[in-house]
Amino acid sequence: MLPSPSFSDPVDNYKYPAFKNLSNPFMSNMLIPQEEHIPVTAMARIVAIYPTIRHEGHSKLVLKIDENGIVERGDWVGTSSLRGFEKLSIGKGMDQVPKIVSRVCGICPVAHLLAGVGAIEASVGCEIPQDARNLRMIIHCASRLSVQVLHSLMVLPDFYLPGTDTRINPFSEEPQVRKIANRIQRLRQIGQEIVQIAGGEAIHPSNPRVGGMDRNVSSRAKIKMFDLTKEAIPLTYEHVECMISLIRNFQKRERVEIGGKEVPVPPTLGYHSQGYLATDPLYGTSSLEDHPSWDLARYSEVSPWGWYGGRDEVTFEDPAYPGGGTSPVGTIVDPRMEACPSVPLYDGQPVEVGAAARLARFRNFGERGTIGQLVARQMECTQALHELLNTIDHLDPAGPVLADTIPRGDGTIGWATNEAPRGTLVHIANVKNRRVLSYAMAVPTTWNMPTAGKALAGSPWQLAEFIIRGYDPCISCATHMIVLGPDRRIVADRMIL
Known about the structure:
Layout lengths: L18 E5 L5 E5 L11 E5 L9 E7 L5 E8 L6 H5 L7 H5 L7 H16 L5 H26 L19 H25 L8 E2 L2 E2 L5 H34 L2 E4 L2 E4 L10 E2 L22 E4 L1 H4 L4 E2 L18 E2 L1 H4 L4 E4 L4 E2 L2 H9 L5 H26 L15 E11 L2 E10 L2 E8 L1 H12 L8 H6 L5 H4 L19
Parallel strand pairs: 2-11, 10-15
Antiparallel strand pairs: 1-2, 3-4, 4-5, 6-7, 8-9, 11-14, 12-13, 16-17, 17-18
């Protein structure tokens, strides 16, 4: 569900374009942006950061900044290459497709697999046994714990050793750092081992299938999962306490050092005025439910052509910026042509999805911006852990895990959401006679990219990467299109690394 935001954005100085409607195959609206001028100051300069680092996939930041280096407008565009999983799924058997779409990502294959089987079950009208639900919840929670702590490794270099002005190097031999890194690695290992036990494999699990699960686990395997979860309890609480203390230390600093410069940290870092989208505090929903918490009719997509800024030229560079400097002056940028993800909207607006959105929607979490995202992600680690304990306890190893009857499908469109670690993941399927006629995905990073563009405004440009890292982006997951020129040649192939 999408609550209306109750706050205003103090740095909201440009509007999103208006749209006109066209129908799409999934009974929602495909929207084409209409022309609209987006004002910036006459003194605006353009700086580009490419590639952005410490996240999955390739992306670029094109920032219009004022004379003080404050972002007036940000375009964050994904530039990873297209792999075509949705197109690849068409015509395949309904039992094949969940396995295919789990390969969209090697970090969050569990989320894609569960959303995939859920969408197909919703299309054909198949209810699954309770212990199949329990096994899916177990691998979902174990995966969430594993992925959320992995993000901590990505952001650790942004933080400082307590009581010092020294940034954290996760590969340092300093004992305090090794303790943090080793704890993260052990928690990831525990999460992956539980996924392997319940799901068949730690990556791209084979046990989930349309209709439930291929097999239940043994009583001995249940005890093993329970023991692993109990081992994770003290480690998780230590991890959460440690990470939140590092985040708060960063938050209290008036300035941080980036590229040899002291950069001010605004209290509104990463703020935006968009709403939150979350369908469940933990797992998700589907069109198979009587009252699902997501509505396909409220979903639409926008071409990046009119959403992002057009062709322009870099007019400001900083050779000292970490990673080899920003793009040189004179570099031509064209976000609308380089962007490979489409732009999903809910009720005609971009939204934020992820840990902060879930906690805001279901647990009255009120902390906004990048700091709120980072804190919320840590809080979800303990939530996943306790749900793991509860679900393992209720799992009956002797219970049935496969539906007695699995319908063939009559062409009804079905969808399922999974509250993946990075946010609301939606898979949409149309199945007839066990064949997939059409397939679509709206992934968390696709939802977040346009919202993050607004969140960049009002902060020093040097903090732009820190802001987008708060979303834990997975750019390859979000890439669902390629850009063709009038001669049908790929325009953005220069972005494929």
